[in-house]
Design a protein that fits this description.
- The protein is α/β, with parallel strands linked by helices.
- The protein has 2 domains: 170 residues, 3-Layer(aba) Sandwich (Peroxisomal Thiolase, Chain A, domain 1), CATH 3.40.47; 148 residues, Peroxisomal Thiolase, Chain A, domain 1, CATH 3.40.47.
- Helix content is 34%, strand content 25%.
- It contains 11 helices and 13 strands.
- It has a 5-stranded mixed β-sheet, sandwiched between helices. It has a 4-stranded mixed β-sheet with strand order 8-13-12-11, sandwiched between helices.
- Helix 8 packs parallel to helix 9.
- The protein is globular and about 55 Å long.
- It binds coenzyme A.
- The site of coenzyme A has 22 residues, from helix 2, helix 6, helix 8 and strand 12.
Length: 325
């Protein structure tokens, strides 16, 4: 029986930094409010000529380098995103073209912030089935393009970036478990209303601001704490490990208070919680992918460590995983 294992990671964040102090000049807010309510200090914003596939490409190049694998050996590319370059074609096809990954299939996956873990599970299943040996899994977002910089309750939260990982066929079991669920009843809690087939783009849709991200923050907050705990426990159970064995908890980097509440509910010590939301804000499906690359590159995890991921996203979607490094 063959397994799947992450063999290389990469990430990319735009150079431009938007701090809480910058927001004080844009909307009625303060650094103190943003820091205490969310834990965010700054986020990265893509230049106008940079789109999601560009950042996804940059992260992918680094992941391929880290995995020491040639693009022609990639059998597939799965890109989690809610901010693709175009509604179609898939942004993963643009990445495939730029990488010259001639032998790869490519598709985008829309699962809100859970996109990277959904993509990881899809890639794992394809590899374990024997249909592929190496799949590039990406989470990438240009949320700044759909954020309303007049709405102080959402604009301070989001940032741009990309993270990637190469998942390869292996004798070692690198993905001990994944747990995926959706609760479509809450479909309207985080939404970009217009631009699809329900509300096509019209002058009116633009005038009404329906192309901007809308979020019911309080509802998401409550669901977030419960969801992260629940999904974490399910992935731990499926992996047949104990919470004590988890070396590092990487929850979705949306809000420090949500992550901290989930950590406490799971009885994990503070040093096992990974946080970089202070530097990137919420980058949706790129969030845990960037976090993973950071902990790999700064040596925070070592061989055989167990990493617990847990994410809640628009949909709502819920995703978690226990990964053996
Ligand atoms: N600066 C100052 N005040 C702000 C503000 C800002 N940036 N944003 C909102 N406020 C105000 C509100 O207008 C409200 O004022 P009012 O009482 O006069 O009406 C007050 O702060 C409280 O708003 P509320 O929405 O209850 O704040 P909160 O403590 O719930 O924090 C969020 C708001 C968005 C930070 C929080 O709900 C959150 O993080 N939710 C989850 C978001 C998330 O994780 N999304 C992604 C999941 S994929």
């Amino acid at each position: 029986m063959s397994f799947a294992k992450i063999t290389g990671t990469g990430s990319y964040a735009p150079e431009k930094v938007l701090t809480n102090y910058d927001f004080e000049k844009i909307v009625d807010t303060s650094d103190e409010w943003i820091r205490t309510r969310t834990g965010i200090r700054e986020r990265r914003i893509a230049d106008p000529d940079v789109a999601t596939s560009d950042m996804a490409y940059e992260a992918s190049v680094k992941a391929l380098e880290a995995a020491s694998i040639d693009p022609s050996d990639i059998d597939g590319i799965i890109l989690g995103t809610v901010t693709p370059d175009y509604l179609f074609p898939a942004s993963s096809c643009l990445v495939q073209h730029r990488l010259e990954a001639k032998n790869a299939f490519a598709f985008d996956l829309s699962a809100g912030c859970s996109g990277f873990i959904y993509a990881l599970q899809a890639a794992k299943a394809i590899i374990v089935s024997g249909d592929a040996e190496n799949i590039l899994v990406i989470g990438a977002e240009t949320l700044s393009r759909i954020v309303d910089y007049r709405d102080r309750s959402t604009c301070i939260l989001f940032g741009d970036g990309a993270g990637a990982a190469v998942l390869s066929k292996s004798d070692e079991n690198g993905i001990l478990s994944t747990y995926l669920r959706a609760n479509g009843e809450e479909w309207d809690k985080i939404i970009q209303p217009a631009g699809g087939s329900r509300i096509p783009s019209t002058e009116e849709s633009v005038r009404k601001g329906l192309h901007y991200l809308k979020m019911k923050g309080n509802d998401v907050f409550k669901e977030g704490v419960k969801g992260l705990e629940y999904a974490s426990l399910e992935a731990i159970k499926k992996a047949d490990v104990t919470t004590e064995q988890i070396a590092l908890f990487i929850p979705h980097q949306a809000n420090h208070r949500i992550m901290e509440a989930a950590r406490k509910r799971l009885n994990l010590p503070p040093e096992k919680l990974f946080v970089n939301v202070d530097r990137y804000g919420n980058t949706s499906s790129a969030s845990v992918a960037i976090a993973l690359d950071e902990v790999v590159r700064n040596g925070r995890i070592k061989k055989d460590d167990l990493i617990l991921f847990a994410v809640i996203g628009s949909g709502f979607t819920l995703a978690s995983a226990v990964v053996r490094w």
